[in-house]
């Protein structure tokens, strides 16, 4: 079969009129947000040349907690977001929409 003709199961069921229950859509959005945040933390940490242990030390966290955040296994609280942004020497922008989550660390300008 030609790969271009393959569709995700979700797309096929949507084409047949299936609509996800609201709780499933909410769970999917929460997972996307956790993954977007995890990716943003990882990319900013790598851009700074920091290990997880070094970021953890800067943020007053354990390396295991940083690993859980980067693995999208932890739901960050507002204080944790602030600590990570400060440790990553950046501001944090989070844009939420119906079907899109955008998380970006904006580096502070050099003093």
TrEMBL record:
InterPro entries: Cro/C1-type_HTH, Lambda_DNA-bd_dom_sf. It comes from the Bacteria. It holds the Pfam family HTH_31. Residues 41-95 form the HTH cro/C1-type domain. This is Ribosome-binding protein aMBF1 (Putative translation factor).
